[in-house]
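WARN retry 2 of 3 for item q-0093 after timeout on previous attempt; input resubmitted unchanged.
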Amino acid sequence: MAGLRNVPELVVITGAGAGIGRATAVAFAELGSRVVCADIDLAAAGETAALVGGVARQLDVADADAWEHFGAWVRAECGVPDVVVNNAGIGMGGPFLEHTAQDWRRIVDVNLLGVVHGCRVFGRQLAERNRDPASARRGHLVNLASAAAFTPSRGLPAYVATKAAVLMLSEALRAEMAEHDVGVSAICPGFIATDIYSATTWVGEAGAAALHRGAALTGLFGRFAPGPDLVARRIVLAVRWDVPVLPVTVGAWLAYGTYHLTTPLMRLAARVGDEQTMRWLDGLARRLGDPPANAAVRVVSEKTRQNGVTHAQVVAR
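OK item q-0093 returned
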């Protein structure tokens, strides 16, 4: 790998139990990397670890103390990782005025501070290791932001705020970690067929209607959106070439360019787009017929094929 100088020996991935996290574990395992699969759902992390020949650990990314213990365990049992992918996150939608303080604390703890803790714990390890002039391993921190980071939305105020913060954190951290020979990348996927849409929490009185719209959108995106394996390949590319910010889908690139070049258009879309756009998408989904509730995304590693084992990951995100 040109950017890393060699294939990463050890990769740590949070939210590895499903979706983008699992696909990323497969992608790095196929390169020959050892993978530590962390997830709040230990059973799901174990399934991914079994798939890629890695190791599973339970981790609540919102728990700062748990991060310290996790980082110490990884260092003692596996060594300092070359790549850390801060992937775990949650969705939340609804009017800003309906969000409670507890709603904000939860999404900030997971989506933002979960990334902060990962970068802090493993960033220290990487900086210390790379102070050794004999070390030929560079290291990389990958933070999963979102196209929502540069797409204002009246219906997702907390979510877009946390993802924008992850993007800017990554930019600031990249400047600091450069002196330690550690790369930092922010990945902005866009609409991907995973389970985050169906798992999104909708707050306030509009929650029931939003949940109904979310179900229609889940079916629509599950039918047409690319799978998490696309994001996994882009993560590998970002690590290989030390890319600062990488939108993934065509829509993410369009939003990225529009926000930076014609910001007023994005502000207008944020004001008028929600209800009208949702109604249009509902109608489109009905005209297209009833898509399956889940979209199958097949992620099969070469290693497991050689062992005669295949694994089909079914997600609706």
